[in-house]
Amino acid sequence: MAPTPASLFLPVALIVDSDADSAEMYAVALSLEGYTTVEAHDAGRVLDWVLENPPTVVVTELNLPGAMDGLRFIRQLRTHEPSRDIPVVVVSADGSVRARDAATREGCDVFLAKPCLPEDLTRHVHALVWQRGAYADGNSLNHRLT
User: What is the DSSP letter of 2?
Assistant: First the structure.
């Protein structure tokens, strides 16, 4: 059977978290589910990369170092055409209603409070990616298997 265009791509998950252990834990969980993962700790430094190489999904914390916190990062993603429709999952140590509402207003698709089990994250990521049709749309997947 000939490979389909969608089977030539791996979904890419960008994980932005100031806590290296959390980022690594989520990256391992997503990589075991078939995602290529990219970890970053500073949203301001990774934004240009996202605009040039839009990932399939973004997982971000709200409390990030540098000039761009998670809310501003989401706002920037939603402002630029290449990243406007990327599913965004917030996994935050601030699980307050205020934080959840603010993230939702900026364009977060799913909000999960820490501690968040890796399997909970992967379940939500899979659902969002399937819902957006990114597995079947070669334009949304940017890493080749060849």
Answer: P
Do 41 and 18 contact (CB within 8 A), yes or no? yes
Question: Considering its fold, how many domains does the chain have in total?
Answer: 1
Tell me the two tokens of residue 52: 């040039």
Cis peptide before 118 (omega within 30 of 0): no
Nearest-Å Rg of the Cα atoms of the chain is: 14
Q: What's the pTM?
A: 0.85
Range from 4-8, 13-17, 133-137 carrying the lowest mean pLDDT: 4-8
Structural element, H or E, at residue 64: none
pLDDT at site 10: 82
For residue 14, pLDDT over 70 is answered with yes
**Which tokens sit at 103?**
């993230």
| Tokens of residue 45, six digits | 């430094």
Residue 5, pLDDT above cutoff 70:
no
CATH number of the domain residue 96 falls in: 3.40.50.2300
Phi, psi of 44 (to 5 degrees): -60, -35
For residue 26, is it within any domain? yes
